[in-house]
Structures
1.
Amino acid sequence: MLTKKEVEHIAKLARLGLSDVEIEKFQGDLSSILDYISQLQDVDVEKIEPISNITGAQNVFRNDLAKKTNIESVRGIDTVKRILKEAPELQDGYIKVKAVF
Amino acid sequence: MEINKLSIKKIHDALKKGEFSSVDLTKNILNKIEKENEKFGAFLNISSETALFSAKKIDEKISRGEDIGLISGIPVAIKDNILVEGEKCTAGSKILKDYIAPYDAFVVKKLKEAGAIIVGKTNMDEFAMGSSGENSAFFPTRNPNDLERVPGGSSSGSAVAVSANLSFYALGSDTGGSIRQPASFCGIVGLKPTYGAVSRYGVMAMASSLDQIGPLTKTVEDSKIVFNTIKGRDIMDSTSMDFKATDFKAKKEKIKIGIPKECFVEGIDSGVENMLKKVIEKVKNIGADIEEISLPNMKYAMPCYYIIMPSEVSANLSRFDGIKYGHSEVRKSGADIKNLLDVYLKSRQGGFGDEVKRRIMIGVYALSSGYYDAYYLRAQKARRLVREDFEKAFKKVDLIFTPTSPTTAFKIGEKTQDPLSMYLADIFTVSINLAGVPALSMPCGKIDGLPVGLQVIGPWFGEEKIFDFSEKLEKEIQYK
């Protein structure tokens, strides 16, 4: 069983706030899932290469070009404005972020 | 004639002959949704205005005598993790409750170009995490065959919209069974294409190495039509590939079907097992050979999946940070936010549901320092073994059959308290995503009024093979 401290550590790495009730609940939930996936310790993978792309595609490149996307939609707002509209705080056309400290 | 039950080809012919208009058809569907959506909980958002606007345009085209494509003028429903420009897109999550999609997903663009009429966005388990539809942050979806039972998930609303005739077809996404399992529970056809056959651009990423978009339809023929419309290489998804059609001539060859002996071992409902055996008899009638095969690493597929999928989830869902879009504590007046970390912690705590939190934490744990080798790296190696099982099998057989799900639809609330028992509902579907092969679920009978799905698995880019044989089998089974 994961300890309270372990769950708090995982939650911190995951940038998830948790209440005390949640921590207790997830101690049990996560432990039983981790028990289940530990079955994978039985499989012999000593000489096996890890897989990366499943269909065998190699590196795929394209030119990284900036494109104008001021396509008017049926609602008449351009893409940039539509994206910015979703942010909680804006200043001078930029997304505003709280200070780190 | 109940027009909302017709197949795509029949509607297409009727539209061309002028038996009814696209506006009639769209109004018919919108009325039905308005009357019945409360009962089923299939749609989260309905776009009547744009749907009727688009339908009118198709009707004008027809009246001018112009040729229209097969899906032109026909209503479709879209899973709510796929972006439709200007429409709400929530992924069934509170964290995106008011999010408006700024552009179209590749598949949506393809559908629109082909003249499809998008009537609405369908309910789903939050961020496609769930096998029952109960993890929607808004309301659960109910199975039309029995309203006390789940429709399966995570494409719950898409499956129910098609099954209850609230749409002619729908798009869903499938990471570990999310198209096939609800198709099975609802008695319709669902296809998870080969990894890379359909672009994922504009679909909210869950586990990028496993996710695929596919159609939920009433018939195999419809599935083929929709798949052919949305497939293909897209420069915006570098894993997408041009679809290589296999040179498969079913009429000349004798088909060989493999049945993995591992299917009949643990946890499978005896009714489902008997149903599969009956199907095997019918397959023999249409001139196919049956061969027992072995997928020895199938037993590792579930634990392998439950390491790889949450690992990718934890990375993909880090974009929901309360800064760029979606639910943010910053919006709350009087919220106690001191710094950037508080924005992250509190926005994610308030925005995500329990299952999403569980999977993010499992993923973070599996990727964290000291555990990476034991979990993630080991799982990526085991994944190769799962893939190799299929490579070997497809050297001997053309297609593989398994049940889609080990049981029929379970009761609402039956598995919500035990996340692990919910995971096991996907035991026959997750290995398909790990291997990247295509698989289709088609209805093959009912047990106590509840549909049973047959999973038809093909080799990489062998969709044509699947369609060809499944269409024949569909006629033989004549399940309607």
2.
Amino acid sequence: MHSRKTERGSGVAGLVLALTLVIFVAVTVYIFAANVFPMAPSITRVGDWIDSQYNLTLWITGVIFVMAQLGLAWMVFRYRDRGQKARFVHGNNLLEVIWTSATFVLFIAMGAMAVHAWSRVHFVPASSDALQIDVMAEQFTWNFRYAGPDGRFAPTAPENYSDANGNPFGINSNSKDTDDIVSPILEVPVGRQIELNMESKDVIHSFYVRELRIKQDIVPGMDIPIHFTPLKIGTYDIMCAQLCGLGHYQMHSTLHVVSEADFQKWLKQQEAENQQ
Amino acid sequence: MSAHAHPVSHHAAAPQGFIRRYIFSTDHKVIGVQYWLLALAAVSVGMVLSWLFRVHLAWPHAILPGFGGVVKPEQYLELVTMHGTLMIFFVLTVAPQSGFGNYFLPIQIGADDMAFPTLNMMSFWVTFVAFFVLISAFFVPGGAPINGWTSYPPLSAVGAISGPGQGTGETLWVISIAMFCLASLLTALNFIATTIEMRTQGMSLMRMPLTVWAWFVTAIVGLLAFGVLLAACILLLLDRTAGTSFFIPAGLVFNDTQPALNHSGGSPLLWEHLFWFFGHPEVYIAILPSMGVVSTVLSTFSRKPVFGYKAMAYALCAIAFLGFTVWGHHMFVSGMSPYSAIAFSFLTLSIGVPSAIKTFNWLGTLWGGKIQFTSAMLFAIGFVSLFVTGGLSGLFLAQPSVDLPLHDTYFVIAHFHLVMGVAAVFGIFAGTYYWFPKMFGRCMNEKLGKIHFWFTFIGAYMIFMPMHWMGIMGALRRYAQPGGLAFLQHMSPIEHFITIAALITGAAQLLFYWNFFWSLRHGQKAGDNPWHATTLEWAVSSPPPHGNFEQVPHVYRGPYEYSVPGYSEDYIPQHLAPEQVAKAGA
């Protein structure tokens, strides 16, 4: 027979395990505290609110993480088998009540604070003077449509979809409204509210721009609006975040946030190309 | 009624002949081992698939065997889809619940078998066939499905028009999962009937080991969840093959192909609701049995009663109940009503409370103990650490506004792999090292077991912690390549790190295989009760005889009576009559 020590494991494992947990906690805390791997900077106010809620959550979970992992490390270090007698105890109702109610209050309070940013994304509708842009997602391309000089969108129908003829939105060919601008990139003016009306013609896609802190699935058969106000001029990636087929990873476009003047210039250019 | 006398069935002679004893056996122990081995086969395939796509992600130009060159995007998605499906269904559902549950639930409640042994055998064989139906998807024209384990329509519903992998491969996927659901439903019924009807004298609910509580509660969750997925799979199959439109709306146009498909009126969101009404409880189906195992192992090797036994049992029930009210947190960005997101958010955060109760009580069990670091114990302690780490990232994803940037990124991959994948696997390992002596009469090698633990524990964190950071930086899941996005290309050092960690950790699993199969024949003889444990399976020989008990056992006390003052041994088995227990100094 093996000795009881090798059969049951020696206390050394407890020391090593405690040390491993301490190192793990130290490395993890360092990486988060030093923000070694940061989020892309937010370019909207809503994005800033989401970030502050994210940071609050990081603090709360960080404190719990450190306490729980170090607590575990302490237990395996302190109570490794050194020939002592184990305590005979079945539990403690007061402790159960305390940690149950404490975690409940903490988690629910945290959830309540998260509602604000969400409500600004989804409960508050876009203002009536928001710039309206239609989005048509398809395997594996983004299309954006602006109303053009007349400020109205031309009527569309699925029967008219034709990427080959440059008509991804299916604008009725006999429509008199021919001034809609269709673009493969999303060009928007800084500081103005944008409302996207999003549709898909085939499968589920998802509109994702890291800097906007927006991700929204686009479901065929549904017309899903989303709005945002970009506050920083720049070029940002638009990605598809919902698996849409073999070209999913290639389905991206560009969000150009430009000055109002540059935006008007871009519109004029597009109109001129339309008339050719 | 728990105290009814046992029928004479266990006096019947054990079936003779190899096929009746080991293949088409109705003995719950054989079926338990069959499920366990099926899960081992599935996890082996699933792990190899993950190596292949990890290598592809780190070295996109690498030539891999069997791919006829560089891995193509659709092949990457095949690997990911089959990996997820195998692991979630055929490993995490099969091993801890159907495997260990089948073997030990009847013994731990003092029964001679499951309530419906023939049904039990059928459940296994349906699951077994479902496994091969799934695997066969690799070998059909058009290839394996590429829709991820979630299989969202319309992509998964419209057939080959939406791309490769959408033909026969996807149909086989749906059929396999439907069969799996059917078998799991029957298993759940069996577990519930057995727990309610077949407990031996004295085995009241509050004397059941927490493993039994976990299997029982998980069976109830399975009964309610698998039925919904079964229905959803049938609807999806009809959409694919019979021209119905449950999930397909009107006017879909693929790749300029006119006229549009002849479907109308379906809702892709309906599938998401049905799928996640199953899918979220499925997380608990995977993790609850491991929680039971961990509670038992922590108690045994701390030589202490489980801290807060009743709170642990109630917390299991609370998690199971709340688990059915939180599916919407998978759908915050799906286009469902944003108002319902608030309700789902608070319910999801609430489920953190019973999870915290369990964690506190595990720490309470260790506190003041006399901890013996066996391989089983190391994996159980590792489970607690992983469950804490993986659970806390859930608090981010439970808040819809914070979920917006993190949804569908590697942050989610890290979260669910740690909390339901690796943690549950640690529960399975803890259970295997703990019960192997009972199942096969010999002990596994402790030294190899410990080396296996250290590689797996450190390796798991090295694989999955960096995925949080990739997700925070915006890396999306299910991307075959960076696809020209500069910020994704900059993450290639992290991809390399993760892949190397995954290969090393995966290779270390060979230690486990070796230890398992070597110990079957050459392990140290175990005896009836090598761990000096208290529950009923340790009262019988190793392995237990056909029918489990020579005499119907009587239960006199709770399941975790360790270190009771005034007795000569530091454990008092459940079945010992008070007058049989040796007093200290006697």
3.
Amino acid sequence: MITLTHYLVVATIMFAVGLVGVMRRKNLLMLFFATEILLNAVNVALAAISNAYQDLTGQMFAFFIIAIAASEVAVGLGLLIVWYKRKNRLDLDELTTMNG
Amino acid sequence: MFESFAFYFFSIVVIGSFIVTVMANNPLYSLTSLATGMIMISGFFFLLNADFLGVVQIIVYTGAVMALYAFGMMFFDSTKDVKEKNPSASLVFLLSGLSALLVVVIFAAPMISPLDIQMTVGEGLAGNIQALYPMDTEVINQAAVLTGAEPITQVINNVQSVGMVLFTKYLIPFEVAAVMLLVAMIAGIILAGKKMDKSLTLTSEDEIQEKGIA
């Protein structure tokens, strides 16, 4: 019997994997992949809780998270392309123009 | 039985492919394993009776987001491995400690919280929390009841109930999200498509600032 706890444990492990990715990556594109993992982990948790309470509100929030993730990718990838055209690499350590 | 098997299969595949995404040095491997994980996550949604969410997951994530990344990879040199500076040992120690602490806190939070309710997926929670928008609604044909005929009960499936909630209670957030997607689309087109004919790497920083190319 699979309970809510099983799903929440899986979502937590996915979130931790995404967090490790965010912390260890220096390449901006790979950093974006890790943020997608974080958003998906939260979506799984929301859907599981929605099913446990037999309430649709959790699914609604998951839809809006998907919409926000899609727009984040569109804007972020545009910025990455502009940055790559200028610097020819996508290193986080080079984003130091506001460093004074 | 089937549910347990499907759950464990999907969790192993999803977590494995996400670990590959996080650890791989080649962007193409990373992208492919991320797409695999996204498709497998939709399996969770189908198991959780969220059919529409599962379909949206496949269409939006693997259809749109992954395709967008794949097109974006055409601008970057994706064949060479990403060289990243290895962080120092103390930093690795700190980061892994932080993520382990986070996992412990997330697991311990329900035990500390006063809400002690038996949680079972599928049977509903026996607490005093009433579902505002119940997932499966049975509608009895009122006209049949009045005329004394056999009442027809109709079970509304997930897609129908999602539509009903989304276009009543969440109509304004839905429209705001639509406007936000439009803004993001225009921003993406302008950022990626502007001055496609000029190479920004060959122009000096002062020239870019002067002419306002990027």
4.
Amino acid sequence: MKTKIIGLILCITAWTSQSCEEYLAEELVSDVSAATYYSTPQGWEDAVRATYSAMKNYYGVEMGFTMTVFGTDVHTNGADGSHKAINFYDNGLNAEENYMRDTWRGFYQGINQANAVINRSEGIDLDQSVIDQRIAEVRFLRRLYFFMLTRTYGDIHLTLEETEDVETTANKTAASEIYTQAIIPDLEAAIATLPATQSDLGRITKPAAEYLLGLVLLTRSYQPFADPNDAARSEALFTTVIND
Amino acid sequence: MGLSTIASFPTQNFGNGNVMGEALANNPLGIPYDAEGNLRFLPTNDGIRINPLSELVPNAFVDERRAIRLFAPVYLEAAITDGLKYKVNFGPDIRLERRGFFAASETNVNRGGPPRAGVYQQQRLGYTLENLLTWEKNISDQHEFKVNLLQSIQQLSFEGYSTEVSNLPYESQLFYNLGTAEVKGDLFSRLSDWQLASFMGRINYKLANKYNFQASLRADGSSRLAAGNKWSYFPSLSAGWRISDEAFFQDQDFVQELKLRAGYGLVGNTSIDPYQTFGRLRRTTYAWDENPAFGYALSEIPNPLLGWETTSEVNIGLDYGLFNGRVFGSLDFFRANTTDLLLNRNLPFTSGYNNILQNTGATRTQGVEFYVAANIINTPGGFKWNASLNAARLSEEITDLALTNEAGNPIDDVGKGWFIGEPIKVFYDYEKEGIYQLDEVDLARDRENKVPGEIKIKDQLTDLDGDGNFERDGLITPEDRAIIGTDVPDILGGITNSFEFKGLSFRFFFYYRLGHTIRSRFHDSNNTLFARYNNLNVDYWTPTNPTNAYPRPNQNQEFPRNGSSLSYFDGSYVKLRNVNIGYRFPESLTKRIGMSNLRVYASGQNLWFWSKYATFDPETSDPDNNNSPQIGSGTIPSTRLFILGISAQFLSK
């Protein structure tokens, strides 16, 4: 009987020796979180690469050409296949159409990713020149995504800060403001920072930024809110790209 | 001290989910066999439709799942002093699962391409440890006390591994030589753990065997919730009164037993996937020229506030017994308010996120349950007939959601399909009014840009200008979607009958569920009216057949527009779920062969059903979509199951 009771006491102390807080602590092993990974050089570079991947979701699949040249002389639908409302301009062409949603969603994910890269760039253990260059890359990408969004949807939500808490509302910013606040100034900054060539083929270069700014200005030149110099500046930028 | 062990080791070939879908979609003019009697992989010249019989060639498609389970609870019990007992329960539970997958070249997944295979392994190692102290004390005949103190911990550790390859050199290996594959495909491994810890105290007090009170308090901690919100307290109270034992009740002999019960309590729910509070990253793909450029993107917002979902329930019940116990049963009412629901709440995509798991919203479920059982016949000759019936009716409604209007009142979350005052799962869609006829050219064009022969959608009463008056605006817009039905039934329950005579027994059980809506993808996916694939035999519209049943066929459509409006049905059914006939050998006989009990039986399941949904058994779920009460396009109708069995118990020496 005595040994039994001692055994029981041992049983009880065995579980009390580890505290409840320790027992219930979660440890993330299979995955990583932004809080721990993005603060490392490797993680921050991965966040930059993730900003690029938002392009793949649009240009790499049917969505890009369906959203841009479907319903024009370039491209029409076949007998079988999806997203035909975009070609027909019929009542299926509304916010319920998947590509209308996915384009919107994909580019805003890319924008938030770019905002996160910039937001978390402080204190990363990399050369400042590398950090500046990467920030210029994601700024280019963020402008590209805003440009695609405003070309498709007109007046849109403007955000230049990483979403760090639950956000349930969106703002509607005039397309003219999107150009002046979000697209043009940082493209000019990107041109100043980016190198003419990159060792990784596909990373944003100075000529790419010049070309995009040219395209942006050319697009704005026929909008009601155009600046009188847009077309001329655009021509100058394109000339630089061709000549260099 | 005690130990019990349950070990099981089933192996099952799940087979192929494409057979039914291919059989339904194939053109009936296709030729399944060539002149030599061999299967033709493509029965028609449509490259997308393969021969469903090819999937059924032995070893063409293998999905073999093997599960090993070992559950071996052990307990140790000791009386410490008089009335004080201590018990430890320890229940290790080990589950190992292996899935072997192989698809030969001529199967739907490969369509003539090289064969592929994969092996998936899962381990679930879990245990529960409970320490239980019980103290019982009776003071005279009048007062009985019982106190329980419980401490318990529970853990489940999951590990999964898988390997997928393709381009196997020879098909006869199935999934038993993955290393030979030319293309090494996906590799996967994963670890996922969770823990629960609980403390509980409970007091029972019985007075004069007539009044019964119970109070308890438990504290539960869950690893899956955010730090600081892992613990919560859940009290409960209940009381019972045996009215039939009161003196004033003894003057009649109609009701022998009557007991009133009432209770109130809180319970918690934390059954979510672990690690959801961290804000995990998602792997992304990109390439620099030919070099991979993988990255990690934001995909979850960390939620440092995630806590318990809590349900508070009130119930009142009555147990009764009439006619000397020949008829007995119960009647129960309950109302459960669930708050802080663990729900994935949609976020505007402009935030860069899709949704977040939050404690958001509240629901109320209330209902009534009725049970009656009767010993209808019990002759001295040994013939017995017992029957029972139960019925439940419940209502479910959302009472609160995270979104609020300017006045601070909760508003519907249309994107999620959540509506205040409605159940969590509703079918929200356009409603079919009929088919546009030849004389409705203008109406069809003006209302929804359609032509005669297409589905006419009902223009619902909507309040677009917000003036409080609901009107029909003559246009079909997303505002014209309406709640078509819910998966909550009006009534559900069962009826059991059992007959016994000497050793013979016969039992059958009906189950019923009435008044709920189901969505049948069978009726829209197989009804494209497109002529490329086989179609349901429906009454479709033509200029000379001006029906309002189904729209016109067209050569240029995957689906008729608003085809989903054809897929909602009343899902009511009554089902003969189980029939069991058996014979128990007399004890005098079984004793001689060393047995205390020997019974042979035959049973059948799902032998018969009645349903308003005419196609097949509506009690089936879409294997690809477990959360949604819908029937898939290629659903395999439910099976009838027959079992022959022997049940034997041996005498211990």
